[in-house]
Each structure stands twice: as structure tokens, then as C-alpha cells.
Specification:
Strand content of chain B: 25-35%
Order of helices and strands of chain B: EHEEEEEEEH
Shape of chain B: globular
Structural class of chain A: mainly beta
Shape of chain A: globular
Radius of gyration of chain B: 16 Å
Oligomer: heterodimer
CATH class of chain A: Alpha Beta
Helix content of chain B: 10-25%
CATH architecture of chain A: Alpha-Beta Complex
Strand content of chain A: 25-35%
Strand order of the largest sheet of chain B: 1-4-5-6-7
Radius of gyration of chain A: 16 Å
CATH superfamily of chain A: Oxidoreductase, molybdopterin-binding domain
Structural class of chain B: alpha+beta
Distance between the termini of chain A: 43 Å
Distance between the termini of chain B: 63 Å
Largest sheet of chain A: 7 strands, mixed
């Protein structure tokens, strides 16, 4: 297995200037859930990318584990105003998962076990900006934080980093996800404070 | 197939009393909603409610599907009741009024 490490930082930084507007720093890892925590066995788990043509590409857990993994150290920002700096994750880059998939899509709708969904532009999943993450701080993900795997898109508000991820639909037109249907922003850039529609 | 889920709700439906009364102006805790998914009718007060942030999610106490979602943004309140196929809201009746006459 190839190991590619990206973005390690030597030591904890001073948080001044590292927080987007309206955010506060926390050392906790708050749990926000829209429903009961799904429990998915690794034998049953699969990740599916479906193109706008209806072509499906599936990975079992074993197949995901066989892909090159990356360790990344990133800041995460929740729309409920907490931020965590220098969080360490391990997972498979979406660049790796999507590399052989032919698509004309501009948008993605991410689906989770349990029914959650969130939308974002496809380009925000590419270019070393997003991962299917299965470790946090050197440990397997905890169930309440998305085990066995969650999306990690740290440059957008954390509701876009769907827990219990099960697949991505690639789409020509945008389609709002679970919270985006109820007034939350379609893009969600924390540095522009795009919390709600119209921000 | 998904494995069984844990089913620990954070709140019961009474959590929604304040925000829902803002929208409807009537008492909804004793109202009964039929789940569009499983068909079970449940009092709003018995909904399993997750939240409050990013928003409230009320789930069916029988099948756990989403019955309602409620989000308050700075200038609006968003409500999705699409998981409820019908809502029965109790209202005072004339006969009840008459019984209270001396």
C-alpha cells in the first residue's frame, strides 16, 4: 500500500488568524446527529459512485483498504460555530476513487447510511481537497463520528463531511441535500461565512 | 442490508412545542401525525427529536424515518413536514363550550 502524507505540521499553532469569522476554538469533538447512529458491518459496507449516465462503480471495504491511503492534518469548522485545528485523519483521496470515472457532471450529491445527504460542486471533491476517511487521530472512527468511513471535505463547513458515507451521485445539475433543503447554503465556505442561503 | 441502528433519541417531541407554536399558533403536542413511511400514527409529543443544531429532526417513534425537519435561520423558519402524510389537530368543540356555560 502506498502511503502519501500531506500537510503534517510540526506543532500546534497559535489559533489567532486560523479561525474563520464567527467561529470559536474547541478541543472537544462535539457530536451532531440528525438521527440514530447507523451500525454498518464491514462485510456489508460498500461505497458507490453513480455517474449522470447511471453507471455505478462500487468498492467493498476490502477494496477500499487496498487503495493508496493518505494521512492529512486539517482544520475543521462546524456551522454551529466550533472549530478544531490540526485534526489528523487517514483515508482515500476522492482523486483516487474518481480517477477512472468518465463524467461530465459538475455537482455531487453525497449519500450516507441512515439517509443523510449533502451536495457540493464536484470540483470541491477533487484536487487533494476531499477524502473517504476511516481513521481519526490514529484510531478507527468512532460510530458517532461516522464509522466505518465518512467524507472529509475540510475546506467547507463540516456538515458537508457526511458521516457514514455510502456513495456519491455525480450530477449535471445541482440538487440540495438534507440540510441544504432547509435553508443551509449550497456551498458552505466557512471563510465567507456561507451558513445559510443568501449568505 | 444495514445492520440495526442504535435508537437513542436526544429529545421527545415536546422539544418542538415552542418552535411549532410559532408557526401554527395552535397547540401541536397533542396533534397526531401519520408517518408517510410506515403508516403509524403518533402524537407529536412522542416523536423522537434530534437537534437542535444544525436543525431539529423529528423521527417516527415506530420506524425512525424522518417526519419533520425544522431550521431557524437569522431571518426565517424552515419547516418540512413531508414525512407526515396527515396531521390531526384537536380543536375546541361547540359542545365543550356549552358545557362550560352556567
Amino acid at each position: 500500500m502506498n502511503i502519501f502524507t500531506r500537510g503534517f505540521r510540526g506543532r500546534k499553532r497559535d489559533s489567532s488568524g486560523q479561525l474563520p469569522p464567527g467561529q470559536y476554538l474547541t478541543d472537544d469533538f462535539p457530536v451532531l446527529s440528525a438521527g440514530p447512529t447507523p451500525r454498518i458491518s464491514l462485510d456489508a459496507w460498500e461505497f458507490t459512485v453513480t455517474t449522470e449516465q447511471g453507471e455505478s462503480h462500487r468498492w467493498s471495504w476490502a477494496e477500499l483498504m487496498a487503495l493508496p491511503a493518505e494521512s492529512v492534518t486539517v482544520d475543521v469548522h462546524c456551522v454551529t460555530r466550533w472549530s478544531k485545528l490540526d485534526t489528523v485523519w487517514r483515508g482515500v483521496s476522492l482523486d483516487t476513487l474518481l480517477t477512472d470515472i468518465e463524467t461530465e457532471a459538475d455537482f455531487a450529491l453525497v449519500h450516507s447510511y441512515g439517509g443523510y445527504s449533502t451536495n457540493l460542486p464536484l470540483e470541491d471533491l477533487l484536487g487533494g481537497k476531499a477524502w473517504v476517511a476511516y481513521e481519526y487521530e490514529g484510531e478507527e472512527l468512532a460510530p458517532e463520528h461516522g464509522a466505518p468511513a465518512r467524507l472529509l471535505v475540510p475546506h467547507l463547513y463540516f456538515w458537508k463531511s457526511a458521516k457514514w458515507v455510502r456513495g456519491i451521485d455525480l450530477m449535471v445539475q445541482d440538487s440540495p441535500g438534507f440540510w441544504e433543503q432547509l435553508g443551509y447554503h449550497d456551498y458552505g465556505d466557512p471563510w465567507r461565512e456561507q451558513r445559510y442561503q443568501g449568505d | 442490508m444495514d445492520a440495526p441502528t442504535t435508537a437513542v433519541a436526544v429529545y421527545d417531541g415536546n422539544t418542538l412545542a415552542g418552535p411549532l407554536s410559532e408557526v401554527f399558533g395552535v397547540e401541536l403536542m397533542t396533534a397526531a401525525g401519520r408517518c408517510r413511511s410506515c403508516g403509524t400514527t403518533s402524537q407529536v409529543a412522542t416523536f423522537r427529536v434530534y437537534g437542535p443544531a444544525p436543525g431539529f429532526v423529528g423521527r417516527c417513534p415506530h420506524c425512525e424515518d424522518v417526519l419533520l425537519r425544522l431550521v431557524r435561520t437569522p431571518d426565517a423558519l424552515w419547516l418540512d413536514f413531508s414525512g407526515v402524510s396527515a396531521l390531526r389537530i384537536l380543536i375546541p368543540t361547540d359542545s365543550a363550550d356549552e358545557e362550560q356555560q352556567p
